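agent> Task received from the user: take the single chain below, predict its 3D structure, and emit structure tokens. No templates, no multimer pairing.
agent> Plan: (1) validate residues, (2) run structure prediction, (3) serialize to tokens, (4) report one or two observations.
agent> Step 1 OK, no nonstandard residues flagged.
tool_call: predict_structure(input=
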Amino acid sequence: MGDAVVAEIDGRRIRIGDQWLTDFASCNYLGFDLDPEIIEGIPPYLRQWGTHPSWARLVASPALFEEVEDELRALMGVDEVLCLPTLTILHANAIPLLSAGGTIWVDERAHRTLVDPCLVARGRGTDLRSFRHNDHEDLARQLEAATTGPRLVVMDGVHSMTGNAPDLNAFARVTREHGALLYLDDAHGFGVLGDRAPDDETPYGRRGNAIVRHFGESYDNIVLTAGFSKAYSSLLAFMVCSAEVKELIKIAAPAYAYSGPPPIASLASALLGMRINQARGDQVRATLYQRTRLVLDHLDKLGVATNNESGFPIITVAVARAQDLDDVGHLLYERGIYVTLTPYPVVPRADVGFRIQVTAANTDSEIDHLTEVLTEVRDRFGLRAIRA
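)
tool_result: status=success, residues=388
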């Protein structure tokens, strides 16, 4: 289940060689990659703008960029956003700039795309430290130490392996109290988590406007980054930040001055996706939650433990014996289930297993088949059990 070449798709089913499998490795949470309204809405933008902009954003950019950013500002409820091609590129540019001459504190289980720019920043003279995963008290103790220059705290929003979110209110309070800037990557939360109200149908909240709004926080001393490649199935990323940070990125970040922009189809699908999100996104999220809940409830019935405490559509299951992972992967594949295997050192040894990602485009019958196969895996190989 690596470097696979997908020859054909049919809904959320994929063909690899001669084998058809149901895809539970996809991050297309809202199913917008398959939405007919989005697919049919893209060609007019191609006729108007061609396939790809010819300029880096500093030189010029199609008005379509401005339309996307206008829609984003309205969705996020903010004054400033800035779009760049991908989150990896955004982090690689922003983190060294925002921490130059100062100190970074990075969550010890932060995503690799966050960690690598921190290492680059260290190579340029920034002091680099780490704090225990999602532990705001450990961070607070470390922030008591005297430092010079900018103070940057780097961490994930919704975690890509557990599906859980940090206590954002606590982290926001701690970083503000100690004069630090909180830099969040909410790649997996944007499009799914959002504003909360007492009558919400699901714990995801509404509108899909990401973790800061989900926790009722302001953007004071927070830089939120997220991408459209997960929930919106588009090649595009953005940051919500202060006017000062935005100006710094535009002036000093190579990605803004030199990087090739996203293709027109990606800009169009992001724009169309946000409009569909406004019209029926909460219904899609309700479907997504219901299907995710079926999987989580089945695992609970089997007595199988997961790290998922949120009901979010990322479900990591650990095998009972790490050495069985290859055999478990073969069984899943033979039974037509495609997931992401999580070996050591990608995850700690105790968490070796596989990650299931549910999308709104998965059908009820596909969910039923998944639960049947999970039962077979548990019976044949064992899965980490819920502790009594």
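agent> Step 4: summary for the user.
The domain at 37-276 is CATH 3.40.640.10 (Aspartate Aminotransferase; domain 2).
agent> Done.
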